[in-house]
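The freezer alarm interrupted the setup, so I double-checked each line after restarting. Inputs confirmed:
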Amino acid sequence: MTSDDRPRAPVSRRERPAKPALTRQGIIDAALMILRDEGLSKVTMRRIATALDTGPASLYVYIRDTEDLHAQILDTLLAPVTAAAPGAGSWRDRLKALLTGYRDVLFAHPEIARMALSTQPSGPNYLALGDAIVGLLNEGGVPDRAAAWGLDLLLLYPTAIAVELSSQKSATRKTEDLTALAAQIATVDAARFPHLARLGDELVSGAGPDRADWALDVLLDGMLTAGPHTPRKVS
Amino acid sequence: MTSDDRPRAPVSRRERPAKPALTRQGIIDAALMILRDEGLSKVTMRRIATALDTGPASLYVYIRDTEDLHAQILDTLLAPVTAAAPGAGSWRDRLKALLTGYRDVLFAHPEIARMALSTQPSGPNYLALGDAIVGLLNEGGVPDRAAAWGLDLLLLYPTAIAVELSSQKSATRKTEDLTALAAQIATVDAARFPHLARLGDELVSGAGPDRADWALDVLLDGMLTAGPHTPRKVS
DNA sequence: AACCTAGCACGAACATGTTCGTGAGGCTTC
DNA sequence: GAAGCCTCACGAACATGTTCGTGCTAGGTT
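Predicted 3D structure, all chains:
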């Protein structure tokens, strides 16, 4: 868990000095301001410390580490991501729209997506997102266990795509990588990798949103399928 | 792509001096040796440079960055991961065994999993793994486009689980996190998150392997399902 | 032989995350 | 009031990834 599990909140010594008191929320607010004004790459512990007129080590009294900070940032950014009303389409369409909203937040700040993969986000907005997803799955007839276990899967794909974005130095390199990958696949050794060679361009075909749509359908269809290998009670 | 796309390979100046020549493969070999003897956390550019009696900046003539290095390490570690013969079970069982082998490699060195998410691994062993997966999917009747697009999904789940492992400082923290998450879920605000509250322990139930098995079945069932929303030709 | 160019080698430097250690203030106890 | 303890504040330091800039060597050209 994040610092929320600390036995008690630290109390700033700056209460009376001219400097405003350090608080966890104050650090997060400063981070969000820097995010807005300068971009996520500038949201460093040192930059935040400078903004709060202190040293970077001071922040660690209130913030566990940069992952903790990113988790808070993500949760704040998720505030606008909510499910549409039932009249706005089928449960599947509304679920797709909800996950598209989530994906858009991550695509806007892909560096944060790394955090979403490596820790279990637990902010109220993230929980609300999960709750809405489960609600829609129930509406679609997905059994409870499938919904519970599938929640992670549904959030995983958009998160992973965003992480892939985050490692690119620029959009140009991404394009270069895709072009090079396509070229590589076009010349892949058909003797060594016969199946990949046969698939050829199919491996890189389809626009991002088409692939995301398809992936979501695969997951939902899989969850709805009843069969001998659906999840059974673990004894 | 990795350094493989460079117009030509760098040629070391150390050919005649007492120091052995620097080469890309030599750097990778040194990294693997340190991995075996000291663990992945010690496989740093500085440590490798020390092992090769040079400075860390020298490595960047042959290695693009740490991601590039990790990609090579992963590929080497994937050499033993191969598909069982057809007589060893159904296509689904053999696919599960193959992905379990892949997961085991990542779990042994979870830090490398981060790289597998952020870039498109392209080493020969990784390609062979992908080729084997597609072969098994074809054997199971999965259509080509579903196989091509689903390949990423199949590899994603074990990779993501390993990434989650990699961020833990210790197994103890992971246990603490799970316990805290379970406690949090047990007390989740039923008014604010009614669906999550109702699912309760279901959200954290099931051992890792059970969940992984289930996730794989969901993906495979989803790919095999034919319906109006299966992938269509993109015009 | 002399000169020029390309590129390898690598130290220095920069940026960042995080920990360590010390100082000081506030609170509690005697 | 004094002493002791706890904890916040934060500079210093460490570790790492990566870039920059300079020196030097080998090969090619004249």
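Quick read of the result. Chain A touches chain B through 71 residues (CB under 8 Å).
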